[in-house]
UniProtKB/TrEMBL annotation:
It comes from the Bacteria. Keywords: DNA-binding. The lineage of its organism: Bacteria, Pseudomonadati, Bacteroidota, Bacteroidia, Bacteroidales. Residues 7-113 form the HU domain. It holds the Pfam family HU-HIG. InterPro entries: HU-HIG, HU_DNA-bd_put, IHF-like_DNA-bd_dom_sf. Residues 118-137 are annotated as: Disordered. This is Histone-like DNA-binding protein. NCBIfam families: HU_rel (TIGR01201).
């Protein structure tokens, strides 16, 4: 809660909801609609891209993919008092970081938000005496 908020005060936060999941097969089919490659060929290229990305990230490379963005692997470590005491086993679990490029940053800057009607104010439900479960007739 915010500093100085009244006891028992509540805040409501927005959340982005995914409306649909796009499968890999559908993605390949959609991409093939923008070029002369067939969906199977697009799938082969993307599979090859993923394989090479993994190989290069494992070698410590930053992968620059033009306006799409960059991929890199990062990992922090525990500290040691002296350089001599540092052991590579002190590294924490690595993770892959994606930094969006110009194309995706532009997409983000033009984002707008809508309130979904499916989510209503819980206080309104209390007044209506409704339940969160549908009635079975």
């Amino acid at each position: 809660m915010s500093k100085g908020a009244a006891q028992g005060a509540q805040l409501y936060y927005g959340q982005i909801r995914s409306m649909e999941k796009t499968t890999f097969k559908k993605l390949c089919k959609l991409v093939s609609g923008y070029c002369t490659a067939k969906p199977g060929e697009v799938e082969l290229v993307i599979d090859g891209l993923i394989y090479v990305l993994c190989m290069l990230l494992e070698s410590g490379n930053v992968i620059q993919m033009g306006e799409f963005g960059n991929f890199r692997m990062v990992a922090g470590s525990k500290g040691s008092n002296t350089l001599k005491d540092f052991d590579p086993m002190m590294f924490k679990k690595p993770r892959i970081v994606f930094t969006p490029g110009a194309m995706l940053r532009q997409l983000i800057s033009g984002t707008s938000y809508d309130r979904l009607d499916a989510f209503s104010d819980p206080e309104e439900k209390k007044e209506e005496g409704g339940s969160d479960r549908p009635e079975i007739e």
